[in-house]
Every structure is written in C-alpha cells, then in structure tokens.
Design a protein that fits this description.
Number of helices of chain A: 15
Distance between the termini of chain A: 53 Å
Oligomer: homodimer
CATH topology of the largest domain in chain A: Aspartate Aminotransferase, domain 2
CATH superfamily of the largest domain in chain A: Type I PLP-dependent aspartate aminotransferase-like (Major domain)
Number of domains of chain A: 2
Low-confidence stretches of chain A: none
Radius of gyration of chain A: 21 Å
Chain lengths: 395, 395
Amino acid sequence: MINETMYQMGNKLSVIRELFSYGLKQAAVVGKENVFDFSIGNPSVPSPKAVTEAFQKLCAEEDSLPIHSYTLARGSVEARAAVAANLAMRTGTLVRPDNIFLTCGAAPALCAVMKALSLEDSEILVIAPYFAEYRPFIEFSGNKMVVVPADMENFQINFPELEKCINEHTQAIVVNSPNNPTGAVYSYETLSKLSKLLKAKSKEYGHPIYIISDEPYRELVYDDAYVHYIPDIYPNTIICYSYSKVFSLPGERIGYFFIPDCVEDGERLYYAASGAARVNGHVCAPSLQQKVIQICADVKPDISVYDRNRVVLYDALTNYGYQCVKPQGAFYLFVKAPYGTAKEFSDRAKLDNLLIVPGDEFGCPEYFRASICVSYDMIIRSLPIFKKLIEEKPE
Amino acid sequence: MINETMYQMGNKLSVIRELFSYGLKQAAVVGKENVFDFSIGNPSVPSPKAVTEAFQKLCAEEDSLPIHSYTLARGSVEARAAVAANLAMRTGTLVRPDNIFLTCGAAPALCAVMKALSLEDSEILVIAPYFAEYRPFIEFSGNKMVVVPADMENFQINFPELEKCINEHTQAIVVNSPNNPTGAVYSYETLSKLSKLLKAKSKEYGHPIYIISDEPYRELVYDDAYVHYIPDIYPNTIICYSYSKVFSLPGERIGYFFIPDCVEDGERLYYAASGAARVNGHVCAPSLQQKVIQICADVKPDISVYDRNRVVLYDALTNYGYQCVKPQGAFYLFVKAPYGTAKEFSDRAKLDNLLIVPGDEFGCPEYFRASICVSYDMIIRSLPIFKKLIEEKPE
C-alpha cells in the first residue's frame, strides 16, 4: 500500500549521488587521500568573506527572534528588494521585489515554475546534455519531458532538432547556460536564433512558449565568456537561480524564481508558481539565509581557483588524448570516453577510486562529467590515473 | 496557458497569512503598538541560549566549506545520529539514523509522507479542528481528505464519527497532539481507543492504516500534561516534526520525518517518502541548521513565557464570558465566538486592529484561534478590546 513510483524515485539514487555516497564510504576504507572524487558539484572554494561575515554578524544579533522568524512565503520584502536591486543594476531593467520569490534553492524553484505551467498534455523541452534531475522535476510536476538531441560539436543548440521537437503542447524550454555538464555558455547568436524560433512558434500555436532559464552558474564564467540576460533577447523568460554555487552555500538552500515584467501573463504565472511551491510544502526560504542574501546580494565570487583547476585538468586530459570542449563556465569538464561507453569507462575508473559521472543521465552516454570544484592537489594526484586509463585503450 | 488550480492556490492566501500580512501593513498605518496580532504561530520567545550559541560557534568556524556543503538528501549521518539518540532516550526504543529523514520543516515532511501513501482512491483522515494547510498537503499529494467531525466537548476524538469515516481506501489519519488550534493533548485513553479501532479496521480491510503524527508542539505542554510516544500504543505511526516551535526557529526550515522500525513496510515507506521529497524539489535540509540540531538535539525549551501568556489570556477571556477549553499544550487558545460566526466576530475585531483567526479553515466555524506566542504586554493591552467586543453582544 505504498506508492510504487515514489518508492522507485527514492530507492534509486541519482548516479551522481550514488557515486558521492560511494566515495564517502570508500574514503573510510582506503583513506580519504586515495579517493579521487570528481562526482559532485560541491563548491570547493570557501564562501566569500562578506558572506561568512554576514552569517557571523546575524548570529551575533542580540535579539534572535527577527533573524529566525517566519517571513512571507515569497521571502522578506527586504531580502527581495536587495535581490531586485542587484538584478536591476546587472540588467539595466526595472526589477521589483514582487518579481522575486525566494525558495529553498533552484530545485524547488524549477519544480514550482514547471508545475505552474503544467496542463493536460503539456510538454517541456530540455536540451541534451542536460542536468539529470530535470526529468523528475518535469515529469512529476505534470509535464512530459522532450529531449532535444545535442549539438555535439559545440554544445550550443541543434536547431533543426529543436524545431522538430516543438508542437502545440510545448509550454517551455529549459535553458541552462553556463551549462551543467558541458560548461558551454550560449552565445548571443545562439540565443537570438532561439528567440526567433520561439517567437515564430509561439505565434504559430497561439500561446507563449516560455524559456525557463536555470542559472546557478551565472557568475562562474572564464576567459572572455559573457552570460547574456535572456529576457532582453526573448521576453518570455523566467529565471531560476541558486546561491549554492556562487557563494559556496549548496547545503544552505537559498535561491529564487524571478519573473520579469516583460513576461506574458507573468503575474498569473508568479501566483501559480507560488501556489505550486505551497502544495510542495514550501513555507519560506530559510530566514537566516534570506538575511545573508539581503546583505550580500552584490557580492562577487572569486573564481580563480576553479579557473586554475579547469585549465590544469583540461590541458592534462587533452594532452593525454581525451576529447573535450573547453568549458567557458560552470565547474565541470564533459569529456568523451576514450573507449567503450562512458558507463563502462566510469566503472573501470571506479576500480582505481577515480569517481567520474557517466553521461547517460545527462542524455549523452558517450561522455563523462568531471567536476573541477575539487582540490587542486587532488587533481594533480589524479592525473596519472587518467593517463593510465586512456593508455589501457584497446587497439 | 497557466495552471488554474495552482493559480488559485497561490493567489488565495491562507486566512492566517492574510491576517499576518494585514497586520504588517496596518502597523505601518496606525503604529505597531496599536495592532494586536494574535494571528500567527510565530514563536515570541528567543531561541534557547544553546541554539544561539551553536549558530555562533558554527559560523565562526575557520573553514566554511564543511558547514555549508551539500549533505545526503536525508541529512548528514551525524545530525541524524544526534536526533536518533535523542529520540531513543526519550522513547526508550531503538532508533537508528536511517529511521530519520531531515526536511525543510514539518510541511514538506508531511507532503512527502502523504505522497508516499497516495494510491488511486486513497483517503487521509483529519480530525476537526485541524491545521488548515493539511488540505492542500493531502489533496495535492494525490489523496482525498476526509474530515472527522470534532469532539466539541474536549477536543479529543469523536469516535463514532471517526468510525464512520474509515473505509477500504483509508490510508492514514493525521494526529496532531498537542493540537493546533485547540491546544488539546490526546490522553492515553484516547490513543488506546484510537489504536484499538485502527487495528481492527486495518485487519478488516487487509492493509495498515497509518497514523501520521504531526508533532511540532511536542515539547510545549503545560501543567501535568504528557505527550505519549504514539508508536508504543499504535506501531504503525510515522512522526513528522519541526524545530520551528520548540527552538523558536520557524523561518529556518528544519524538521524531519521519522519512521520507526515497528512500522509495517516502514523501509519501503521511507524510500517512497524520500522519492516524494525529491520530486518536490528537496535537495537537503539547510546544512547549517542540520549542524545546529546535531549540537542541540537534547536541548529543552523554556516554556514559562507561553505558560504565563496562556494563563493570563485564558483567565481574562473566560472571566469576560468567553467559552474556551483550557489548552494543555501548543500556543493557541481556541475560543467560541460569543455571537455570530467566528468570521463575523473576527471581522468585527479587525476594526479594532485585533487580529484573530476564524475557525472556518480549521473546520470549526464557530470558534476563533488566538495565538499566545505574543508579547505579554500586548496581551494585557488587548484585554479591554476583548472585553468590549463581548459586551457588544446583541441581546
């Protein structure tokens, strides 16, 4: 008398979580220094000093009540005002506190927005390779997930394939740039083409097709990469955001959905997503974390450590003969398995306690993902194993 | 092209939240000291010193990474071990860390457990008066909500009515003792009768009927009231808990569901509820808050302030002629409207900036709820208004 589908969802860990759990257990067996865990996107750089100081300052407040009290479900007006002001500054547009709804991270924000868009037969598109948890979020919010095959050349968008996937049931497409797992950042050209296509299709089917822009890696870009503000290019864009990566607070569950004024039917969508959050058990985002964001909305991260990791791992792997598009953002390398499937290669690597994520769940079973948010030292120590593994390639 | 049901859920605030919002706005107009807000269950006593110190100590840690990192979805093993040890001590039973799943408060814990129990035609019972948010939690987790009419005498359980509500589709009954809104604490006699009935009905229908015990007020009891450990009386009991009330951390979103080993099919239920949490967007409970609980699992609250409020408000109101069962726990008074419906009475009180919650949404439209987790001073200053209002009673 237990819901079987939920049992399956709970019993079967995501491959990433499984590897992460395995890594913890294995560390107890062979020693932490002998496990090379590239599985999870757990930031490896301490939180910015301003963030740490904000936590300290708030916790030192003499009166604990205002720190820990309930806020409005959408978040305190002060915290939302700080976020809105930061977004206004960054985008050069008017952003009001009531465009923002603070959530316990990006995951529940995505679930809420997707549930708000669910209709009979509604479909939401994702572009391969995609963050594996999109599938449960989309399917259990009452939508069908449609996978747009990858652009295997540059991990931008395969437009002929995308066009084939759009029909009258298409409610939204998830855009994730900088991308997990590839590190690709969508160019202005890509976004313009996407905008043009979605505008034409929205017109053809007589209803807006929304972009749901999942942007947890927005500030983590390297070299001269630039992350465009998508609503400027395509107005019907909803933004889901998390402070997990930028402030190294992944466990603290603070993020938001942001529905700009330019979004068609935006106010109704905001309320519908609020309602969806409510029925999923949302009460408010953690209040202390809200106050930290209120203080730190304008703080910028130091990404030099990730950048160094990215360069050293990318250079070493490509030097050994691995194929990989150089990531422009986020903190992953998406690497072609040098032989066999990525699953087979990942299983082989596991024998040497090297934990990399096969791309099956991302919709690209030929590739594996390696996080670069790990210690530089671990990367250096892992290189001989990467080298040995590719040298095992059968002739 | 927006989901209409979700829109309705988001657009229509709960009456409590609406009053709370109104109170904030009205305070800006007439001055904070002239608003008597008895609407919301926001603890008015600072967090225990040990809790505040734990926050301070953790935020002062030199290495911020271990504090703010992802944990397992169910929570860190250390935090769950501390919770389990506390529960073991309190209950005299074996409790393992893997019986516990840490959540962002009781609301998502309830949603997860209810979704795990949802089947075609499944029904979950609540006993009037009940916490109003049970309805969205039950209905949107895929169950039908069935309301058991109240025991208007003592706010225990109306067993003849309960028996009528149980059928082959009954999956669970929600028990909330100490009760919101009445403050009633279920006696051993009540729980024994409940156990006997549920055992017979489980046998009759050939499947367990679970108790979902929602216990956020477990430690908030007065005089000689005692909160029984329900699994000792009825093994098929799942416990949902929140630290919101006991540690005055309602905004911080930390709680759990706990499925003891004695629960039939308990492990499957645990995984199913984990899966339900996942598809609702749960990643982990806030990691800093997990660590606070790890340190403070055994800390006891000081409830003397609530007790003083309870006594002074109860004594004054009954002295003026209001009818009210003296609450044994939680922090509310549930009072019969002296004339008209409670909605009418609450609307009238609002004109004097006295904010009380009509019982309609609790399933008892003749009663209103007044929180006692407010300042003693505000209670004293509000008494003349309560007195005036009952004196307006039409002959």
